[in-house]
């Protein structure tokens, strides 16, 4: 961190050359009062958003059910009854999933007519107030998984729109709107009176209630680039903590409606961010709002108790070629795609995002299939993300972006392809590879999230990032179907995960290194990344070597 003493003795005023924005961000500091307040507000969004994305795993949990036999039921009959197995010789081997029954031969319900099978009309549920029971989803096994599919589809559609909203109206506006709508729609879900209404609300929440993308953009744009990875590592751990806490909330609040209310109600506070959260200085400059940007710089300097000279601010050089009022956001996006270099990066990024979402969602689905307490299993799997987040920060600080991403894709791919060929007597080795691959999957995800944002210019950064992320949601749509491939060969899903990871690793060789270069504000600046030597951040000599 640059201290006040360092700042006062650095002769910035004497530099006659144009000053880049990172020079001012360096002067404002990375962990001053303003940044810490902003980080706390962002941390809440990260922690709660992690629950938004996967709460259906617990809210729409699988439950056992059996047919009600009118001749055998009584007011006090429980789910488990002595005659259950006799009433149906074809109970689901994974639990009680009874869709047909044999009629009793007498009122004692000890003997059933096994030559006759009839469809059930009513069911008794092991958990009477579960999602499946309240909406009567017995013997409609395709409906509960549809919630996760619709969530992924809604998120995919929403990202396509949300990125453009963020680039046009600002990171703050997009984040506050999405965060508030997520809370409102999430609470509304808890009052749903039918399965189809719940499904519609789930899709709508995923489409317009995900604030993570604009909040991420804000988090990397409020500090100079070399501090962004550390800043992001802290926020990623907040995201992970939210996911670790969620299964224990579900365990302690088993009724699905109350569970949703507990995790969504606190996020209504995001509405107040309209008054306390500041916009991205970089976005303001990219839209030609120089007066507002300078005013915000002065506000942050005062809050952080640092001095930023007027002469330094006046020398801020921001290329206004693409920020005039005559240039629309759509034209800027089209111009970005017309760049051959930008298009090549975009195509590689889409493969990255497809790979990481397919693998991460596939791993998450696999975690609840492991025998044992599903709440603890889920929490333990997510806990592996914490060392992955820390390793992400350390690796990027020392080895930049490109090499760690290639290594994680290649090593993870090898682990995954080799897992099905592990000897059956070494189950522990297969589990160890599973956990190691989970860490590498999270590590890759974190790098791709940061790497993608550094490849494109400010005025289309969120749009390009969101389009890549939206394409990646195709992977999350396919992930729930991968267990079906096990009917052909149990190791097929793992091999597919591994091969896609290896492909992504190979394609990364085509990408430029973005570490220790300035965050590009224009297409011209973005295109020259990787074509020149390391770019200095600003005229100030850094007291710490950054990433």
From TrEMBL:
Single GO cellular component term: membrane
Main location: membrane
Subcellular location field: Membrane
All copies of domain Major facilitator superfamily (MFS) profile, residue ranges: 78-516
InterPro entries: MFS_dom, MFS_sugar_transport-like, MFS_trans_sf
Membrane topology listed for this record: Multi-pass membrane protein
Record keywords: Membrane, Transmembrane, Transmembrane helix
GO molecular function, one term: transmembrane transporter activity
Keyword Transmembrane attributed: yes
A Pfam short name: Sugar_tr
Transmembrane segments: 174-198, 204-223, 230-251, 263-285, 346-369, 375-396, 403-422, 428-451, 486-510
Record PANTHER family: SOLUTE CARRIER FAMILY 22 MEMBER
Protein name: Jg9679 protein
Source organism (scientific name): Pararge aegeria aegeria
The gene coding this protein: jg9679
């Amino acid at each position: 961190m640059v201290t006040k003493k360092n700042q006062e003795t650095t002769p910035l005023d004497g530099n006659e050359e144009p000053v880049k924005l990172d020079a001012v961000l360096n002067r404002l500091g990375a962990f001053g009062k303003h940044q810490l307040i902003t980080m706390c507000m962002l941390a809440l969004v990260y922690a709660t958003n992690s629950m938004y994305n996967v709460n259906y795993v617990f809210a729409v949990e699988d439950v056992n059910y059996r047919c009600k036999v009118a001749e055998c039921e009584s007011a006090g009959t429980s789910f488990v009854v002595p005659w259950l197995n006799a009433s149906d010789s074809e109970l689901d081997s994974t639990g009680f999933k009874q869709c047909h029954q044999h009629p009793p031969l007498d009122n004692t319900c000890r003997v059933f007519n096994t030559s006759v099978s009839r469809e059930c009309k009513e069911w008794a549920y092991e958990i009477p107030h579960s999602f499946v029971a309240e909406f009567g989803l017995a013997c409609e096994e395709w409906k509960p998984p549809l919630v996760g599919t619709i969530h992924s589809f809604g998120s995919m559609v929403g990202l396509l729109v949300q990125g453009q909203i963020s680039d046009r109206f600002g990171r703050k506006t997009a984040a506050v709107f999405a965060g508030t709508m997520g809370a409102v729609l999430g609470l509304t879900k808890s009052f749903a009176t039918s399965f189809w209404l719940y499904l519609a609300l789930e899709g709508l929440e995923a489409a317009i209630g995900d604030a993570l993308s604009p909040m991420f953009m804000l988090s990397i744009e409020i500090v100079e680039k070399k501090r962004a990875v550390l800043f992001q590592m802290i926020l990623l751990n907040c995201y992970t903590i939210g996911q670790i806490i969620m299964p224990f909330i579900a365990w302690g609040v088993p009724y699905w409606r109350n569970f949703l209310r507990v995790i969504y109600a606190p996020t209504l506070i995001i509405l107040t961010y309209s008054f306390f959260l500041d916009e991205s200085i970089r976005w303001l400059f990219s839209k030609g709002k120089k007066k507002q940007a300078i005013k915000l710089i002065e506000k942050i300097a005062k809050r952080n108790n640092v001095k930023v000279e007027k002469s330094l601010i006046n020398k801020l050089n921001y290329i206004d070629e693409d920020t005039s009022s005559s240039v629309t956001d759509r034209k800027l996006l089209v111009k970005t795609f017309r760049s051959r270099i930008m298009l090549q990066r975009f195509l590689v990024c889409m493969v990255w995002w497809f790979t990481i979402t397919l693998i991460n969602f596939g791993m998450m689905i696999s975690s609840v299939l492991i025998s044992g307490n599903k709440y603890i299993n889920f929490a333990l799997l997510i806990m592996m993300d914490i060392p992955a987040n820390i390793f992400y920060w350390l690796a990027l600080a020392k080895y930049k972006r490109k090499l760690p991403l290639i290594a994680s894709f290649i090593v993870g791919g090898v682990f995954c392809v080799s897992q099905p060929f592990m000897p059956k007597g070494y189950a522990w080795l297969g589990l160890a590879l599973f956990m190691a691959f989970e860490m590498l999957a999270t590590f890759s995800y974190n790098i791709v999230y940061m790497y993608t944002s550094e490849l494109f210019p400010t005025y289309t950064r969120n749009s390009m990032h969101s389009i890549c992320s939206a394409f990646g949601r195709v992977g999350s749509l396919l992930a729930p179907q991968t267990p079906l491939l096990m009917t052909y060969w149990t190791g097929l899903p793992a091999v597919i995960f591994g091969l896609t990871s290896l492909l992504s690793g190979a394609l990364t060789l085509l990408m430029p290194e973005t570490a220790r270069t300035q965050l590009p504000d224009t297409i011209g600046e973005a295109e020259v990344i990787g074509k020149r030597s390391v770019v200095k951040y600003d005229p100030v000599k850094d007291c710490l070597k950054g990433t």
